[in-house]
Design brief:
Number of strands: 16
Distance between the termini: 108 Å
Strand content: 25-35%
CATH class of the largest domain: Alpha Beta
Strand order of the largest sheet: 13-12-11-14-15-16
CATH superfamily of the largest domain: von Willebrand factor, type A domain
Largest sheet: 6 strands, mixed
Structural class: alpha/beta
CATH architecture of the largest domain: 3-Layer(aba) Sandwich
Number of domains: 3
Length: 372
């Protein structure tokens, strides 16, 4: 920037002489002639107009920096708002908005919980039930508005009763309604212990997957009459080839039962016969509730070792009061059908998908134990 020392005014950068007095323009900041050794000048370096121009340029630079800072802060705030909204949507907005929620206990069956509510905005609703140290959660999606009703039957502990929660969206936040219900000792009668004896060889993998996925629906069907249902598991392959029999006692925790099914390792098997007799012996050795109706569901697609001992196994099943069902190939009907004691049935494995067979099994179990 150039200026005139005589007029003390600013000149343009492309000028060489002052337009007012004709003197030569000099660069701003250059030391004028006569400057003292201390670096001070006996005359002002720049007039007031020049100083104002410098301040204006500095102000413009500061304004530009401020605009940049404001823009950066706005982008950061927008990012926080976006992330916050995504979290809010995932934890709150996905839930249905409900009104007029009622939770009550069926007076005819203390283990049955009845829930009714109005869906104002579609979404998911979570139902949580706790009793005797066990927790069960069920999440349903409601895509239409209107009055809805749900009901469940679970085995319950008379010592702790039942705590039941319905979790949904209020006006702006996730909320819940909670009720506690007492359970009498008499309501826990009608116990049913069901053991699945599952062939774990590789050909049976689709059946173990279906059992894991459908066991809750299966248990709900049996529970519909107010029965206290527990599920147990025996996994078996080919014992002579070193494949062990794995046993899990009946439990009322269906999520634990699902994890037990999932934990069963597939076995290669080997020759056609598998170890059904060993599995039945292991199932008979499991602990059952004294007053429970015990049901075995034997699932295999192969013949068995120790076939000559099946008659003795049948006698033991009858003596223990077991209701036995078998799901196997039609070609093995003559081998396994004699085991179907206590009102049990033989189900050909080829006739339907295993999911459908499980539905029929649940209905058959209900029919078989109604007279007990």
């Amino acid at each position: 920037m150039k200026y005139c020392r005589r007029c003390k005014t600013r000149g343009r950068d492309d000028q060489t002489h002052c337009a007012s007095c004709g003197d030569e323009l000099t660069e701003f900041g250059a030391r004028p002639a006569g400057t003292t050794s201390s670096g001070t000048s006996p005359e002002p370096v720049l007039a007031l107009a020049g100083q104002i121009a410098v301040l204006q340029e500095s102000r413009q630079r500061n304004l530009q920096r401020l605009r940049g800072l404001v823009l950066a802060a706005g982008l950061v705030a927008a990012a926080f708002l976006f992330v916050g909204y995504r979290v809010y949507a995932a934890t709150v907005l996905v839930y249905a908005r409900l009104e007029n929620v009622t939770i009550r206990q069926d007076p005819a069956n203390e283990q049955k919980i009845l829930v009714e509510f109005d869906v104002v905005r579609p979404g998911k609703v979570s139902f949580e039930r706790r009793s005797g140290g066990r927790r069960t959660e069920k999440v349903d999606q409601f895509d239409t508005i209107g009055r809805k009703s749900q009901e469940w039957v679970w085995p319950s502990d008379p010592l702790t009763g039942i705590d039941f929660d319905v979790i949904y969206r209020g006006s702006w936040t996730r909320t819940f309604d909670r009720q506690h219900f007492s359970v009498s000792e008499a309501s826990t009668r009608g116990a049913v212990d069901i053991v699945f004896l599952l062939d774990t060889t590789s050909s049976m993998t689709p059946f173990s997957r279906a059992l894991k996925q459908k066991c809750i629906d299966f248990a709900d069907t049996v529970r519909a009459g107010g029965r206290n249902v527990r599920l147990g598991l025996v996994g078996f392959g080919d014992v002579p080839r070193g494949e062990p029999v794995r046993s899990f006692p009946p439990t009322g925790d269906l999520q634990l039962f699902q994890s037990e099914v999932d934990a069963l390792p597939p076995t290669p098997g080997g020759d056609e016969p598998e170890s059904s007799v060993n599995a039945l012996e292991a199932a008979l050795a499991l602990p059952f509730r004294p007053a429970a109706v015990v049901c075995f569901v034997h699932i295999t697609d192969a013949d068995t070792h120790r076939q000559q001992e099946l008659a003795e196994i049948r006698t033991r099943l009858e003596a223990a009061g077991v209701v036995a069902f078998v799901v196997s190939r039609e070609q093995w009907r003559l081998v396994y059908e004699p085991l179907c004691v206590g009102g049990g049935e033989f189900f050909p494995i080829e006739q339907a998908r295993f999911e459908r067979i499980l539905e029929r099994l649940a209905d058959s179990i209900v029919s078989a134990i109604q007279s007990r």
